[in-house]
Amino acid sequence: MDREENLWVALSEGRIKKLTLNRKVDFVPTNTEKDALQGKWVKSLVQAPNGRLWLGTWINGGLFEWDVNPSEKPEQSEIIRLLQEGLDVAQLYLDPDQELWISTFDDGLLRWKYGDENPRPVPVGTREQEGLSSNFVQGVIKDPHRKGYWIGTEKGLDYYDPQAQYWEHYKQDPSNPGSLSDNRIQSNAMAFDADNRLWLGTWGGGINCLLPGDTTFRVWKTERGDPRTIPKNEVTSLLVDHSGALWVGTFEGGLAKAIARDSAGLPAVFRRFSISDGLPGNRIFSLVEDQKGRIWGSTNFGLFSIDSTYTIRSFDKEDGIGVVDFFFCGGRALEDGRIAFGGTFGMVVFHPDSLMSNNYKGKVVLTDFSIPNSATVMDSAITYLNEITLSHPDNAFTIGFSELNFQQYNYRNFTYKLSGVDEDWNRMIGQNQVTYLNLPYGEFTFEVFSGDRSGEGRQLKVKVIPPWWKSRPFQFLVVLLGLILPFLLVLLHNRNVRIQNTRLEAKINQRTEEIEELNELLQNQNDELERQVQARTQALEENNRSLMQKNAEMERFNYIASHDLKEPLRNISSASGTRKAYFISFGQSLGISTSEALPDRNCNIR
Asked: Which long-range contacts (CB under 8 A, 24 or more apart) does 253-261 make?
């Protein structure tokens, strides 16, 4: 018997056979056969009053019954169809009156009791009657404080009292901060706590809480940069454990737990868990608590458990889990302590202690190392290396690894990370190689583990040498040149300035001499012009004096000539006046007017 509790038997014909002991995981697959569990996904399950499991499937599914304690092998146990084909079930809820409420994706909400031929539909609301907000129903849960049921749909939350035929409807109202944060209630995210508070997970609106007798919803959403809030607003599952703590499963955000409360007893601080903490995947679909207080969850990469010390263990096909992806399917704790989870293409039933005792993870070894587009290939050599150096053109590599584990040797589940490149741990299922391209220069550490990193992992330091233009000597030279070059540029500049100043000074001196010569020439010309002006001025003054003298002589001559001419004229004028007076006197004696006939001719003589 090896460390993994496998019994190896040597047979007489020279063969070896391996027997796996103490592996108590029942896997019930879905298929299309007539007397089989039909449908693609086992979406929901409940334990019936007769101890068997009622299974609701999706995509050409229906309602089936399966004996959870078969005398023969579980996969050979009889599957009984309870309701018609084509019933796509979203959730099953068995109320205290042993009536099964069947939430469906297209057919609304159905009520059914064992033995009835057909279920009774809950009416969908119309203008004429009260009813469901949508025929796409996600889930149902009984109100422990009131007589009715809370119904989550894709278009809001409904409250229904079948006896009184009473309805209440709650929807998102952007103008009302106390309304639902989102109408899309999730089927695995409806729960009541010990204080009768209703907890709801929504797709995109975070967590909603409704207190008894209240109509105002309290809301918790993620806040960027604050790790004390829930990691994502797409809440896919909720669980209130035996201590009253709230567990939150999200889509792509991992798991969260409320670890502190405010004065009203409501969550104030959340603690987050993700792949980096050991989860097999960050898509959490269903949460179940076992009899020892451990929380079990289903993901897109297997199952996990987390205990009171926050130790996380993951489980997959290596542990006998027949389902890897539990896409939006539910889980249930059974009366005998076992746990059942529905998933894609089937369901699993197991006892938690059997998985915990067999969760062996083997040692991981490196098997090969190659560089793309290069002849460099390392097989066995990489197994013993702890460090490898790559040049700049070869800043990419493909590395292979394996687990020294003979159990489920054809299936592997690895968690790996390249520090400095990957922000979080990566999950790989069914493959054992990973490639990194275009790595920056620097030092990195590649780590790989089997499963949830609980086993012995393997590390490899990878150093990428930078190109010559990014090497330290070249960078030092660049820095040195950066310091010297400004000094040299200043010296060169000063030298050029001095040369230019010398040339400029010579030109200035030459121009100064030319200007002085021109000034001297102009001065001489000005002096000559001044002499000429003075000579011309003197000549003009002499001419003016000569003209003035001649004018004076002319005036004297004119005066004398005028006087000599006027005197005879005055005598003539006097004689003319005497003659005119005579003629006038003579004319008057004859009766003739002669004043007009004898004009005065002396009028212009002065």
From this structure: 253/222, 253/282, 254/279, 254/282, 254/284, 255/279, 255/284, 255/297, 255/306, 256/230, 256/231
